[in-house]
């Protein structure tokens, strides 16, 4: 089992299909489960960036005959491109702020990237964390106003650190 660093006022929400649990500080975040597989978190305090800051966890199974680690490189690059395309299609002019880079976060292989864009006159940042899990990749996608990114980034990393992934 993985060592987990849990937030101070810990609450948790579990995705039922694969049993992945996100632990979070309920004084800072509210959580909901949508479509039985997508976990959504909305910030409710200054520590996590306040209104307009949210995250969601999406699961992507490894492609047939592919390892989760190989999937991370493929999917991590692919999901970043997909988000860039969707933002372009929505009329934004996204800029890749941080190219996909592989990091160790809480002893797990994690790909991190981020995108800047303007939305309704405000600069925004979308942050992507792709985490290798036994069946593929769990993607944590978080969004906040650009001026709150430095404050909220450690909170997002804490969500990755507090992720509980069953071994199988």
Short description:
The chain is of the alpha+beta class and 168 residues long. The chain is 21% helix and 46% strand.
Characterise this structure.
The chain is α+β, with helices and mostly antiparallel strands and 168 residues long. The protein has one domain (10-164): Mog1/PsbP, alpha/beta/alpha sandwich (Protein Transport Mog1p, Chain A, 3-Layer(aba) Sandwich). Helices cover 21% and strands 46% of the residues. It has a seven-stranded antiparallel β-sheet, sandwiched between helices. A hairpin with a 2-residue loop joins strand 7 (108-119) and strand 8. It is globular. The model is unreliable at 1-7 (pLDDT under 50).
Distance between the termini: 11 Å
Query: What is the helix tally?
Result: 2
Please state the average pLDDT score: 85
Overall structural domain count: 1
Low-confidence stretches: 1-7
- Structural category is alpha+beta
Basic shape: globular
**Main sheet record:** 7 strands, antiparallel
Label the CATH architecture: 3-Layer(aba) Sandwich
Query: What is the helix/strand order?
Result: EEEEEHEEEEHE
Give the tally of β-strands.
10
Strand content: over 45%
CATH class: Alpha Beta
Helix proportion of residues, in percent?
A: 10-25%
Side-by-side strand order of the widest sheet:
3-4-5-9-8-7-6
CATH superfamily: Mog1/PsbP, alpha/beta/alpha sandwich
Cα gyration radius (Å): 15 Å
Query: In CATH terms, what is the fold-level topology?
Result: Protein Transport Mog1p, Chain A
What labels would you give this structure?
alpha+beta; seven-stranded antiparallel beta sheet; three-stranded antiparallel beta sheet; 2 helices; 46% strand; globular
């Amino acid at each position: 089992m993985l060592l987990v660093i849990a937030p101070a006022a810990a609450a948790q929400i579990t995705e039922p299909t694969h049993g992945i649990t996100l632990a979070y500080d309920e004084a800072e975040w509210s959580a909901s489960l949508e479509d039985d597989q997508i976990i959504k978190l909305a910030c409710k305090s200054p520590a996590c960036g306040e209104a307009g800051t949210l995250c969601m966890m999406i699961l992507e199974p490894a492609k047939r005959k592919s390892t989760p680690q190989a999937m991370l490189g493929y999917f991590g690059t692919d999901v970043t491109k997909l988000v860039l395309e969707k933002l372009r299609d929505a009329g934004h002019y996204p800029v890749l702020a941080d190219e996909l880079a592989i990091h160790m976060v809480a002893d797990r292989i994690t790909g991190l990237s981020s995108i800047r864009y303007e939305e309704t006159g405000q600069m925004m940042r979308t942050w992507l964390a792709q985490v290798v899990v036994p069946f593929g990749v769990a993607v944590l996608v978080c969004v906040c106003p650009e001026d709150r990114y430095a404050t909220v980034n450690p909170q997002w990393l804490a969500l990755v650190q507090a992720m509980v992934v069953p071994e199988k």
